[in-house]
Specification:
The protein contains six helices and 17 strands. It is α+β, with helices and mostly antiparallel strands. Helix 2 crosses helix 3. The longest helix has 19 residues.
Length: 324
Amino acid sequence: MKSIPFYPLIVILLIGLGSYLGCDPNDVVTSVTPASHTTSSTVVHATSLPPRTTNTILMGSFNIQRLGPSKMRDETTMNRLAEIVRQFDILAIQEITDSSGQVLPALIQRVNQNGAQYEFAISPRVGREASGYYEQYAFVFDSQRIMGGQQYCYLVQDQQDYLHREPFVGRFATRVNRPFTFTLINVHTDPDELNTELDALARLLIEIRNYESPEDDIILLGDLNEKPEKLRGLQQIPGLTAVLNVPTNTRQNRSLDNFLLDPRMTAEITGRAGTVDLQQMFGINLDEALRLSDHLPIWAEFANSEGTARPPAQTASQTTIFQR
């Protein structure tokens, strides 16, 4: 298969993020042939979120399923979505289908109505003209604990059109003396084109790693539409680990969403990760949960200082998973 000439569409130097280095807008992202093996790990999984602490951050991903005008008109849905956002320090969102640009700002306004200070960065609309379907990605983050913003994000341009929806990349750092700096690759694959797209994402991940160097904390997260043992080229990248191996859809019968990272590089992951059970969180039935999304939010816990992590505290409600 030919290499994909992915090139950043928007590249902005990072300024004021401690020791976090920006990249040269004149640099070219190169192609690398993936290796042929993978590494697995053990995480502790829970369906309820641990508390946010002064030493850790909670990172999440959530396909909100057609976040558009119909959801904005539903007060209960918008209030519940705002409550979900407030549980995270940073949340990657997929499937914003609103073309007016009003829904995400309205949601963040609800998030902040009790004094929180969340901000967001949003991608251009992505999709194919032939399908007539477009959506946007976003990163939403607590600006009191995380540094980032629109100027630190870029959309990757897929000139050969291997991907239905090009990923949205963002750079972030925690607001501590020794910040944990990281790059997130927000993805939403096309379930009808997984054979092509998962291999394309593998090459793209390697290219972004090279482009973002010396940053070594590169995390691909979002809706992969596939279980971790069937990620094709992504499984061939040395050390790359799928953090979750549990159902992530609201009906809890399919594993679709995940975090992919190399724990040898991202030592900040504490080993705790999981899904948010929407029925349990709000005391609602399945039909009500499906009004929020057909996906569950997923989460992972990280130390907020570079190169440090604490071991997870195992409880009766948590189960050790993903030992392949």
